[in-house]
Amino acid sequence: MGRIVLKDVSVSIPIFNSQGRSLKKKIIGMATGGRIGLTEKGCTSVESLSHLSLTIEPHERVGLVGHNGAGKSTLLRVLGGVYAPSSGTASIEGSVGSLIDISLGIDGESTGLENIFLRAALLGIPTKTVERELDSLIEFTQLGDFIYMPVRTYSSGMHLRLAFAVSTMISPDILLMDEWLSVGDNEFQRRAEERLNHLIERSNILVIASHSRALVEKCCSRVLWLEHGEIKMDGSPGEVCPKYFK
What we know:
Elements: E1 3-15, H1 23-32, E2 35-38, E3 44-56, E4 61-65, H2 72-79, E5 87-93, E6 96-99, H3 112-122, H4 127-141, H5 156-167, E7 174-178, H6 186-202, E8 205-209, H7 213-219, E9 222-227, E10 230-235, H8 237-244
Parallel strand pairs: 4-8, 4-9, 6-7, 7-8
Antiparallel strand pairs: 1-3, 1-5, 2-3, 9-10
Helix pairs in contact: 3-5, 4-5
């Protein structure tokens, strides 16, 4: 099904090779939303999430808004199991699919075809599923004969189309996204949005970080406004968006 429960979660990220606290670091911390402090051992750390508690129930579509450094990406990485809470507890029930880094596992020396199987393996997609959907997947990428060429010969747009196509084969209970993906020309973007909509329909919970008011209002039933790693406001798009995007 899918359910998320965070209780008093904080995430502190150590900064190595730091020369300790300074006015400059303090100003940077204030500007980016992180809170710079010292650990017990004197190591500089940034508190990206601070005593955050929330519950996301099945069938919720949650948008994360906030300025850069407010903690949106950190929260997504906690939900995806990339970051463990420094304190507090995170209970994630159900399979998790992430579109935060769609290029993860793409090997530049391997062909596009080989990378389809490599990326699918990293995502836990069975080989039989890939083989069954291979023809439609290749057609969707619009790569033509380049599918048999090393990815290092691809343009950035071709690379993203390949990574996007494979990444959207997942069918998770919980889908995590960091902003809407813009890949290719207008026609491909239309097809990409259609493919994403099908993926969202297959998932039970959606959590997406975005700077787009239109996207949040269109896709989300609930919005969390993050500020300095804390929840400043939690409500419907009609309640939160007018205040955040004013």
